[in-house]
Design brief:
Rossmann fold; binds adenosine-5'-triphosphate; nucleotide-binding; 14 strands; alpha/beta; binds magnesium ion
């Protein structure tokens, strides 16, 4: 081993078993991609030992400068698949925004910028995160300092670009994570407008490289691809759609029995951390209140909450300060919390994409987890349809669930990665949003076992 490797500050190794979703590689190493030493240092210090299948496929192609449209399963390392080429290709000495990474939610923007910072820790590249719900003035001040990589949500990025506060005129890399969501009706027009601020090419091809990633790609992506991508290299690692490590169950219940059923699940399951999805913000708040009354610890989050509360909930849930999180589809995509071993659809989702992304919040990076769906009479056809569409089996829930399907063998051997008092990076919150949450849903129950964190991969302090 060469000297620099001996000097690395490596996290504890994650010894939990993993599935072929991440193990089935060609055997490449990060070194074989000819990356800068400083970038390799960041990658190894994040705890990455070797590339996952999507990283093996996409990193070399992205380094060659090709446009990419890539599809790979949830939790298999898509973020590093675009962040590593961005970090390798940008020039720290050029004081311009050279890469834009767009994501659909503010929480995902914070998480992604943290991945950029961790992997790029030794490179001297500056990353800025910009989203709605934060003070524009702070963004303006920040933009006076060097920014090489801008991570953000579309509305705020368009705002900054069209007011000429952020100059994208020399931005050579355009990344969209959750690309199908970014091209849905909600965002598509904004994305088209943002791209008008990018350098324009006079010859064939674009003056910038585009990297599009998601686990789901409905047809909506096709028209964007034809219009904006140049000879895109297409990667599809979804020979099957659901994760090998996640076992899916359903429980048939009447609507009014759902809470009782959840209570039973809480008492029977060995939950390390859980995410519980509802289909409306009202139901999120109501359920969080009920769970707290049942004396289980719980937070909630949805898009109608003030940003300060959303950030606090997200940050503290990631730290493992609270066991259960009730949320809307705000946190369905991209959110990466390795300690989550149980996902519960308190309300069954309407479509297969949402279902897939929701259950993919557990079983991260090839680990094990379970998804439990509470199904009422009107959901039954939808359950059947989603099962068919995804080619997967959702089984009736048994009286006892085998712990080996979702519980880490020896939780105490799992090191604690988080510094609990670390405050998340990001912008300050606009004054009118600095109200305290009316109810934060947190209620630690006496005698409840502490949450067991898992070894940190990319976010050692977040
Ligand atoms: N090569 C690697 N070795 C070890 N861990 C890794 C590696 N690459 C990524 N990870 C870890 O795997 C987890 C999932 O990665 P990531 O969030 O990028 O998945 P994703 O494919 O974007 O999932 P989703 O579709 O849900 O957004 C993260 O905790 C990340 O740190
Ligand atoms: Mg992702």
């Amino acid at each position: 081993m060469s000297d620099w490797k001996n000097d690395l500050n490596l996290p504890a190794r994650d010894l939990r078993p993993q599935t072929d979703d991440v193990l089935n590689t060609k055997g490449n190493t990060f070194e074989s991609f000819q990356l800068k030493r400083e970038l390799l240092m960041g990658i190894f210090e994040a705890g990455f030992e070797k590339p996952s299948p999507i990283q093996e496929e996409s990193i070399p192609v992205a380094l060659m400068g090709r446009d990419i449209l890539a599809r790979a399963k949830n939790g298999t390392g898509k973020t590093a698949s675009f962040v590593i080429p961005v970090l390798e290709k940008l020039k720290p000495k050029v004081n311009k925004i050279q890469a834009l990474i767009l994501v659909p939610t503010r929480e995902l923007a914070l998480q992604t910028s943290q991945v950029v910072k961790t992997l790029g820790a030794h490179l001297g590249l500056q990353v800025m995160v910009t989203t709605g719900g934060t003070s524009l003035r702070d963004d303006i001040l920040r933009l006076n300092e060097p920014v090489h990589i801008l991570v953000g949500t579309p509305g705020r990025v368009l705002d900054l670009a069209s007011r000429q506060l952020a100059n994208l005129g020399e931005c050579s890399m355009f990344v969209m994570d959750e690309a199908d969501k970014m091209l849905s009706r909600e965002f598509r027009r904004i994305i088209d407008q943002i791209l008008k601020f990018f350098p324009q090419s006079s010859g064939p091809g674009n003056a910038y490289q585009s990297l599009l990633f998601s686990a789901t790609f409905p047809l909506s992506v096709k028209s964007f691809m034809d219009e904006h991508l140049y000879k895109p290299y297409e990667i599809n690692l979804m020979d099957e759609l659901t994760l090998k490590g996640i076992t899916q169950y359903y429980a048939f219940v009447e609507e009014k029995q759902k809470l009782h059923c959840l209570n039973t699940l809480f008492s029977k399951l060995q939950i390390n951390q859980s995410i519980i999805f509802c289909n409306s913000t009202n139901r999120v708040e109501l359920l969080a209140k009920k769970i707290t009354e049942l004396d289980y610890s719980c937070y909630y989050s949805h898009a109608k909450m003030p940003q300060a509360s959303r950030n606090k909930v997200f940050h503290e849930f990631r730290q493992g300060k609270v066991r259960n999180l009730v949320c809307s589809d705000l946190l369905t995509r991209g959110i990466d919390i390795q300690a989550v071993n149980v996902v519960i659809n308190f309300d069954f989702p309407k479509n297969a994409e949402t279902y897939l992304h929701r259950i993919g919040r557990s079983g991260r990076f090839g680990h094990f987890g379970i998804a439990i769906n509470l199904i009422n009479w009107s959901d039954r056809m939808n359950l059947y349809k989603i099962e068919k569409e995804l080619g997967t089996e959702i089984q009736p829930i048994p009286a006892e669930i085998d712990k080996s399907l979702y519980v880490v063998g020896e939780p105490n051997s799992v090191p604690r990665p988080f510094k609990l008092d670390h405050v998340p990076e990001g912008n300050t919150v606009a004054p009118r949003q600095q109200r305290r949450p009316q109810h934060n849903g947190y209620h630690a129950q006496n005698g409840e076992q502490p949450v067991q964190p898992v070894p940190s991969q990319v976010l050692p302090e977040y």
